Amino acid sequence: MNRKILTVIVAAAGLALGSCNRSAAPEAEKPVLTVSIEPQRWLLERIVGDRMEVRTLMSRGGNPESYEPTFADLAKLESGVCFFEVGHLPFEAAIVDKVRANKPDLKIINSSDSIRLIVDDHGHDHGIDPHVWNSTANARIIATNMLRAVKDLDPEGSETYEANFCRLNAVIDSVDSVCAAILEPAAGASFIVWHPSLSYFARDYGLHQLAVGAEGKEHSVHNTRDVVNHIAEHGASVFLVQKDFDTSKADVIAKSGSNTRVETINPLNYEWDNELINTARAIAGR
């Protein structure tokens, strides 16, 4: 075949293909679901797979105790079809009221529904401890609440969501078994935290959490001796500090005659499964 003719044919085919591509219907955007914190995203993404997009309202490194959503955050939330709140986090009540006023048709799901909540005295909403995600027992309930909601939103995907939920439940069971095995030698042990973020974790595995901070505020140097005495009284051997926390205060207390280890945890880690196992290992010293 004449090379010039062949060139014309190839060029024409390319133009035709390009024309077809341009005229093809654009891929439909996925429905957007919004969650409050990263551990929720980990759980919800394992249920919805690639059928929906999951976004986190509070960015990584944020503090649920002091986080104040911006107008951009609220706009992002309102662009979705459903908001999964943790339930009882300080910033959520104000958000829900604003969203209901601006977008009354946005579905809002309380992830904590049916969880046996712990009442504390650390200044949370109505005294309820909101750190429900730091627990395998609670994660099963949270995942069940999420499954029910996404099936209502997308009935056609129900079989997919059910299958994904079963796989997620198997992972949760595995994490529970690993944590229980790690913590078995430490049954009944006490551990120290600044902020009481592991109440539900402690309840799951028969541990005692000692919170030495008050509403997120650190103890002053003048309180150090009282804290050390408190630690000694309860025989706690590990001081858990959260990621990005100034560990110098914990180091001072740990070295003040208490022989307490300082370990770093990150309760807001996206990788929920790895973080719970890391927490168990930190407490058990393994």
Detail the topology: elements first, then pairings:
Elements: H1 3-23, E1 32-35, H2 38-48, E2 53-56, H3 71-78, E3 82-85, H4 92-102, E4 107-110, H5 136-153, H6 158-183, E5 190-193, H7 199-205, E6 208-211, H8 224-234, E7 238-242, H9 247-254, E8 261-265, H10 272-284
Parallel strand pairs: 1-2, 1-3, 3-4, 5-6, 5-7, 7-8
Helix pairs in contact: 2-5, 2-6, 5-6, 6-10
- In DSSP terms (H or I, runs of 4 or more residues), the helix count works out at 10
What is the typical, i.e. mean, pLDDT?
83
Quote the beta fraction: 5-15%
- Strand line-up in the sheet with most strands: 2-1-3-4
Uncertain stretches: 1-25, 215-219
Number of strands: 8
Major sheet description: 4 strands, parallel
Can you put this structure into words, describing what you see?
The protein is α/β, with parallel strands linked by helices and 286 residues long. The chain has 10 helices and 8 strands. It has helices at 3-23, 38-48, 71-78, 92-102, 136-153, 158-183, 199-205, 224-234, 247-254, 272-284; strands spanning 32-35, 53-56, 82-85, 107-110, 190-193, 208-211, 238-242, 261-265. The longest helix is centred in the middle third of the chain and has 26 residues, at 158-183. Mean pLDDT is 83; it is low at 1-25 and 215-219.
